[in-house]
Amino acid sequence: MAGRDNFQLRFAAVAAAAAVLIFLVSGQVAEASRMMNICSHTSYPSLCRPLVKRVTNPRRATHRTIQALEAKTKLALADAARYKDGNQAIATCYATLSDAVYNLESARKSIRKRDVLAMNTFLTAVVSDYGACMDAFIETKQVNTVQNVVVDLRKISSNCLSLSTLIR
């Protein structure tokens, strides 16, 4: 009888260990799967993927996207500066792009300080800045290179804001 009880005890211990192992592995697989598809949480995954290559941490993905937005916004700002005289839509866009650069810098500083609330506030302002720029072009019925770039910047900023909501 003692041998049988000993066998049952070992069997129960092995079964419990296997259950715990399966639980832990399934949790890690689910977490890995969620992180592998980080861009699937955004509105424009095709614009997200090239910016966050192989990054699975939402904080890092958001930081990398903010950096890319800063660089692209500064290029758009330089382009707008060349054409702002005599074109009210581009002049308006130039002002909002300047605001966007400031808000992106502030968002980047906030993410370093781990101040997610401030970061989300600045990123929301960035989305609004790009929207105001696009509105200026829509009102004047203009289509030009600055406007085309701002359309993509607004989409990327929307993605960035989506990524920032994943930060825990």
Automatic annotation (TrEMBL):
Residues 1-32 form the signal peptide. It comes from the Eukaryota. Residues 30-163 form the Pectinesterase inhibitor domain. Keywords: Signal. InterPro entries: Invertase/methylesterase_inhib, Pectinesterase_inhib_dom. GO terms for biological process: pollen tube growth. One of its GO terms (molecular function) is enzyme inhibitor activity. The keyword Ribonucleoprotein does not apply. This is Pectinesterase inhibitor domain-containing protein. It comes from Eutrema salsugineum. The lineage of its organism: Eukaryota, Viridiplantae, Streptophyta, Embryophyta, Tracheophyta.
